[in-house]
Structure formats: structure tokens, C-alpha cells
TrEMBL record:
Transmembrane segments: 43-67, 74-94
Name used for this protein in its record: DUF1360 domain-containing protein
Superkingdom of origin: Bacteria
Record bears the keyword Transmembrane helix: yes
Length: 99
């Protein structure tokens, strides 16, 4: 695995973790899972816990990176997820400076 593939996987993992555990876009999914499974269910707990979810996301993303890191599809998807995460943090930082 090249350094570039590794770093894209890192960014994709961070982005997916944020998307699933904290993003407004997936709030209804989290609420539905917690309502369906109960708050004590491991899956319901994991979708609200960035540290818990990131372990599983990293396992999936790095497995895909290992086997498909050389493909254009991997670079496009992982690159988009990484860019999403970086731009989100930069925008948050700049918004905080303005306010």
C-alpha cells in the first residue's frame, strides 16, 4: 500500500465516521436505528460514538484500500470522501474566525 492510498483511506475513514455519527444528513437513520434496536444495542450505540464507529469504518476502508487501492474507482471515492472531510474542517475553521 502506497502512502497516498494510506492517506486517502485515513481521510475516507474520518469522513465516513463523521457522516455516520454526527452529520445532520444521517440523523434520521441514527434515530430510526436507536428506536428500532434500543439505545443499549451495540449497533445503535456505535452509530452515535465516533470512537466506536471509526474502528469498524477503518477496518472496512483499509481492507478496500489494500485490495482496490490501485483502481480509479478507489481513488475517486476515497478522494471525494477525504476532500469532504478536509473542506468541512477548513470551512468550520474559517467560519469560526469570522464570527
Amino acid at each position: 500500500m502506497t502512502l497516498a492510498v494510506f492517506l486517502l483511506a485515513l481521510g475516507a475513514t474520518a469522513s465516513l465516521t463523521r457522516l455516520v455519527t454526527d452529520d445532520q444528513l444521517t440523523l434520521s437513520l441514527r434515530v430510526w436505528l436507536i428506536g428500532k434496536l434500543g439505545p443499549e444495542h451495540p449497533v445503535a450505540y456505535a452509530v452515535g460514538c465516533p470512537f466506536c464507529f471509526s474502528m469498524w469504518a477503518a477496518g472496512a476502508v483499509y481492507t478496500l484500500a489494500w485490495f482496490y487501492g490501485h483502481t480509479s474507482a478507489y481513488w475517486i471515492v476515497a478522494g471525494a470522501l477525504t476532500a469532504r472531510w478536509i473542506v468541512g474542517h477548513v470551512a468550520s475553521f474559517l467560519d469560526a474566525k469570522e464570527g
